[in-house]
Amino acid sequence: MNAQQLLQQARLTCQKSGARLTTAREQVFLLLAENDGAIGAYDLLEKLQTVEPGAKPATVYRALDFLAAQGFVHKIESINSFLLCDHFSECNHPVQLLICDNCGNVEEIQSNNLDLALRAMADASGFSINKQVVEAHGKCKTCQ
């Protein structure tokens, strides 16, 4: 799916949920959709300022918070960056990321077995999982 198709899907998702996808949020969404892989907030700000010269860090951070809350974006805590989720229609899915420490490539994977195992261990401990993000670091196929 291209960036415009993803944006249209995001608009529909927001319309259904009653969330407001503002122009600034759309611009940040498009920058993420057009970016290949994960990107930091200040790199996003730099790109945003080419189309919106007055954009400030708060503009980007507010947009990222909104996009993450809608499930459109995953925050990668260990490298402090963001990745567009291209299957965000599957709201609240578990997030599993493979992060290459050499080239910085980030790949989102889906393992139902990992999700089930983690939930089973949490249940056994009396713990209720609200959100799941698993970040695995190593070397990608290209860098090995």
TrEMBL record:
<dbReference type="Pfam" id="PF01475">
    <property type="entry name" value="FUR"/>
</dbReference>
<keyword id="KW-0862">Zinc</keyword>
<dbReference type="InterPro" id="IPR036390">
    <property type="entry name" value="WH_DNA-bd_sf"/>
</dbReference>
<keyword id="KW-0238">DNA-binding</keyword>
<keyword id="KW-0678">Repressor</keyword>
<keyword id="KW-0408">Iron</keyword>
<keyword id="KW-0805">Transcription regulation</keyword>
<comment type="subunit">
    <text>Homodimer.</text>
</comment>
<keyword id="KW-0963">Cytoplasm</keyword>
<dbReference type="InterPro" id="IPR043135">
    <property type="entry name" value="Fur_C"/>
</dbReference>
<protein>
    <recommendedName>
        <fullName>Ferric uptake regulation protein</fullName>
    </recommendedName>
</protein>
<keyword id="KW-0479">Metal-binding</keyword>
<dbReference type="InterPro" id="IPR002481">
    <property type="entry name" value="FUR"/>
</dbReference>
<comment type="similarity">
    <text>Belongs to the Fur family.</text>
</comment>
<dbReference type="InterPro" id="IPR036388">
    <property type="entry name" value="WH-like_DNA-bd_sf"/>
</dbReference>
<keyword id="KW-0804">Transcription</keyword>
